[in-house]
Amino acid sequence: MNFRRGRGRDEPEINFIPLIDVLLVILIFLMVTTTYSRFSEMQINLPTAAGEAPQQKSTQINVALAADGQLAIGNKKLPDAHRATLVAALRAAADGRPSPVVVINADGKATHQSVVNVMEASREAGLTQLTFATQMETP
After folding, report:
1. Helix pair angle (112-124, 83-94), 10° resolution
2. Which of 24, 36, 37, 115 has a 20 to 30 A CA-CA distance from 139?
3. Helix intervals (H) in 48-136
4. CA 115 remoteness from chain centre
5. Once rounded to an integer, what is the mean pLDDT over residues 60-80?
6. Residue 57 has pLDDT above 60, yes or no
7. How far is CA 130 from CA 23, 114, 138, in A?
8. Which among 109, 115, 119, 104 has a CA at the least distance from the CA of 68?
């Protein structure tokens, strides 16, 4: 008696559909969790701008920021660049002026942090109107 006569040999199969599903889940996970570089490799030089020079206003407070971090308000050089000193000097310069505008004259090579420190000191002194000075672009 041959009991195996009607049965053929089953070929093994590899089912690719679960494998594709797992790979898609891994791909989506990697796309969601990856952080991309936000900085380009370009060299930039700041600040220059083209435009007309604004008229001088009597309610301006000029803050000069050198590349090495030295500060001057108006024509008076500050002894140090600490925030408390800068806040006190800005309050003294704004005394009696109606809504003065702080004009930040920062050197192109000044650090970003020192410019942000001047902005924060202006905010602490109650001066909310800020602007930046640039030089005219030479052809």
Report:
1. 50
2. 115
3. 83-94, 112-124
4. 12
5. 85
6. no
7. 52, 15, 25
8. 109
